[in-house]
Amino acid sequence: MTLADEVADTLIALEVANDRFTSVRPGERGDRQPVHVVYGGAHLFRRDSAARLGALALASLDAYAPDPFAFARIIDVPGAALLSCDEARAKATYIADPEQLRAEDRSAWLALTVYDRVRDKLEREPVEDFRLDFEDGYGNRPDDEEDATAIGAARELAAGLAAGTLPPFCGIRIKPLEGALLQRSIRTLDLFISTLIAEAGRLPDNFVVTLPKIAVPEQVSTLVRLFEALERRLGLDDGALKLELMIELAHALFDEHGALVLPQLLRAAEGRCRGAHFGTYDFTASFGVTAAHQRMDHPGCDFALDLMKAAFAETGVWLSDGATNVMPVPIHRPVHGTALTAEQAQANIEAVHGAWRLAHRHNRRSLIRGYYQGWDLHPAQLPVRYAACYGFFLEGFDAAARRLRNFVEQAAKATLVGEVFDDAATGQGLLNYFLRALACGAVSLDELAVTGLTADELRTRSFLAILAGRRGG
């Protein structure tokens, strides 16, 4: 009898436990995650809102940073402190041969590339995810007014779906499922979804319902029951309606027994949870932080974000950081046609630039911490959102490409490149890095050829599938 035979019952129990663990934590999802979600009052939403936001974002960029090098210095794009080039010559070289400039002056190439791709993104796909807000961005209004908004906004969304003008991801945020707001939240959900299906015949791709201010798992399970009732009544497929969790109450992180609530929320979602979003300002308020110190980089936020990372790791739930609440808008405006003074014009520039720098610092900090999505609340924040993403992905592109290419060529053998040691677990992480960069527009499919992967291999989104294909070949 072997040693394994002697502990056969224990091994069976271990296999059951391992299967249970992998069913809860199957790994990161391979599909596209948006880099942001734009929140806007549901009463303001129109079928062409995404395009309108893009136009406003471009107008802000033109007004306050029409030059790539100025923009890089304003927000501190990686390498901006090293910019000391002949800017006219650098621009000419970039137009003629970007790779030549990349080899000669990487900082200048990065500044020009980020700016160029930000402008392209704002023209092509300015908004990746939009949430029609019936909560903080809408407020508490008379029932007949919110009824009309729910119906009208659903019709606008249906019209956008028919016209092809919606962002790739969209959804609504309802009011909390608690107290005096409970019935109002349910009614808005019912009116909106019912009207949307009546008008469009289906849900938009990647549609989600965001549940705010969650205090107990029962609020999540109640939303699931509401979804099931709507699906039966409207003829939707089982599980068609998805939800996002909002983590924004410090006193709701742990239950009365001291157990972490976040895994309980995921179980209560019964497979419908697409994401978990952090509410910076409600959380810091509930954490006892005074208004002057409520900010994204507060240590209390780091505590909650780390708990979210640990609780939702490898579950397939997308995580999102919060929003910078300092808007990049001018503080002085002309009155009755009177021109601004020179001092007022300069104050406007400084206000916008300061808000941009703050947002860029926050967005980049989130990316470094592994939070690849965040909130934007104003169109003038969009240029900085994409600049932060593009700078983050492009600055490490060459080294990551060498690592992935070498690693794939070794077909899962551990390998040493420079001072970084890769093993098989790193492969999917490296692949995900490039897939995120590709999805948000930081790089093109042609540029990813340097990784040694084909377009078909990249489309598998799976490192194991790529290795299996190469070994089979």
Report on this structure.
With 473 residues, the chain is α/β, with parallel strands linked by helices. The chain folds into two domains: 36-56 and 122-393, TIM Barrel; 396-472, no CATH class. Helices cover 54% and strands 9% of the residues. It has helices at residues 3-6, 8-24, 49-64, 68-75, 87-96, 98-104, 106-124, 143-163, 182-200, 217-234, 262-268, 280-286, 299-312, 342-368, 382-395, 397-409, 424-440, 455-460, 463-472, and strands at 36-41, 129-133, 169-173, 207-211, 243-247, 273-278, 318-320, 374-376, 415-417, 420-422. The strands form two sheets. The protein has an eight-stranded parallel β-sheet with strand order 7-6-5-4-3-2-1-8, with helices on one face. A two-stranded antiparallel ribbon has the order 9-10. α7 (106-124) crosses α15 (382-395). The radius of gyration is 24 Å and the shape is globular. The protein starts with a helix and ends with a helix. The mean pLDDT is 93.
Tell me which oligomeric state these chains represent: single chain
Number of strands: 10
The shape is globular
Low-pLDDT regions: none
Structural class: alpha/beta
Gyration radius over CA: 24 Å
Under CATH, the topology of the largest domain can be stated as: TIM Barrel
Question: Which key phrases capture this entry?
Answer:
TIM Barrel, 19 helices, 473 residues, 8-stranded parallel β-sheet, two-stranded antiparallel ribbon, 2 domains, alpha/beta
Topology:
Layout: H1 3-6, H2 8-24, E1 36-41, H3 49-64, H4 68-75, H5 87-96, H6 98-104, H7 106-124, E2 129-133, H8 143-163, E3 169-173, H9 182-200, E4 207-211, H10 217-234, E5 243-247, H11 262-268, E6 273-278, H12 280-286, H13 299-312, E7 318-320, H14 342-368, E8 374-376, H15 382-395, H16 397-409, E9 415-417, E10 420-422, H17 424-440, H18 455-460, H19 463-472
Parallel strand pairs: 1-2, 1-8, 2-3, 3-4, 4-5, 5-6, 6-7
Antiparallel strand pairs: 9-10
Helix pairs in contact: 4-7, 5-6, 6-7, 7-15, 8-9, 10-11, 14-15, 15-17, 16-17
